[in-house]
Amino acid sequence: MTTIDETKPIEPVEQDSAVVEEKIYTASQWQLMRMRFLKHKPAVIGGSIVILLYTVAILCDFLAPYTLEYRDSNYSWAPPQRIRWVDSEGQFHLRPFVYGLTETRDPETWRTTFTADPKQIFPVKLLAKGEPYKFWGLWETDVHLIGPAEPGGTLYMLGTDRLGRDLLSRIIYGSRISLSIGLIGVLLSLLLGATLGGISGYYGGIADMLIQRVVELLRSVPDIPLWMALSAALPPTLSPIKVYFGITVILSAIGWTGLARVVRGKFMSLREEDFVMAARLAGANERRIIFQHLMPSFLSHIIVTVTLAIPGMILGETALSFLGLGLRPPVVSWGVLLKDAQQVQTLAHQPWLLVPAFAVIVTVLCFNFVGDGLRDAADPYSR
Predict the structure, then answer these.
(1) Within-domain flag for 45
(2) Are residues 183 and 314 in the same domain?
(3) Are residues 102 and 131 located together in one domain of the fold?
């Protein structure tokens, strides 16, 4: 017969639930957003990958096996080299290695191909010495995260392009341009959208009518043709850095309209609230009301809108560079790298040139996951 232990306490369970409920009821809006965001697993995973991508962009000089200027004409269109631990004879190696590449030429088509040569074994190691570079233009070093352990070895994990340049290194370097152009473009869009949307929603009248007509005009034109027209207007003699900022300004000058609509709607719904009226009666000026009372009250929604706008900026730069109207060599971005993959004949023989497209896809998906998580967390009291 089973007996019930009456001495066993049950209060801790009730206390734990009470503590959790008390934390929820006493938490601030940002604490509730954080707790709700952490429950959104795709958003957490996407945010971790986004942080990793930006870390790669910051440390691209060190993480890339080769420098951006490195090229080897002996390995043009070389296929990816697979890192191995076991050789063709079944022998295990303590240090990973890659097989060397032997060049062959088809006697009928005269097309040059490369095949793995088991007789050539090139060990691979971490913190390998390679091509010298200046980290962020400050410290000169020749240490790379991974590279051939011996001079004369090769390590092309994603193959090479037509000039014999390592594709993996160029993708890593390209992340610095593609990811930064999204952030800078969104910051400019935030400045324009928040300012014009705030003026439109808070003051109304003629200002609201003029700003909204401009917004409707810009939103009625398809984005890509408008991007192409503005990008084609950039003089071809501009320096790479000026083209970079020109493309950033073009993307942000078109992308601010969505944020302006969000800010306008929030201002119109909050400008007659009691806390705004109390601030006016207390003698607060318009600037203080806007920036210390209205803007913080829906800052979470602005963060969500900005996060969801970054993928659009990245896709815009990639599309323009792919079409030859955006960034141009020697600048390296994911869109510039994809320009080499325009020809079907090239893709038939060098399919690894499409790898930069996967970097764009992963980045856009992760930002969308983060945006979805932030959008759900922005309303922490919803179910």
Answers:
(1) no
(2) yes
(3) yes
In a domain, 257, yes or no: yes
Model pLDDT for residues 279-290, shown as the tens digit of each residue? 888 888 877 888
Give the model's pLDDT for residue 13. 45
Structural domain for 194, as ranges = 171-377
Supply the pLDDT for residue 26: 63
Global pTM reads 0.85
pLDDT of residue 22: 58
Looking at the fold, whether 134 and 224 belong to one and the same domain comes out as no
Are residues 234 and 326 part of one domain? yes
* 269 lies in the same domain as 297: yes
The string of pLDDT tens digits covering residues 30-63 is 777 788 888 889 999 999 999 999 999 999 999 9
My answer on whether 294 and 333 are in the same domain is yes
Q: Verify that 294 and 340 share a domain, yes or no.
A: yes
Is 289:276 a contact under the CB 8 Å cutoff?
Answer: yes
In the listed set 111, 130, 155, which residue is the last one of a domain according to the structure? 155
**Interatomic CA distance for residues 101 and 94, integer angstroms:** 22
Any domain includes 342:
yes
Q: Which residues of the chain have pLDDT under 50?
A: 1-2, 4, 8, 10-11, 13, 15, 383
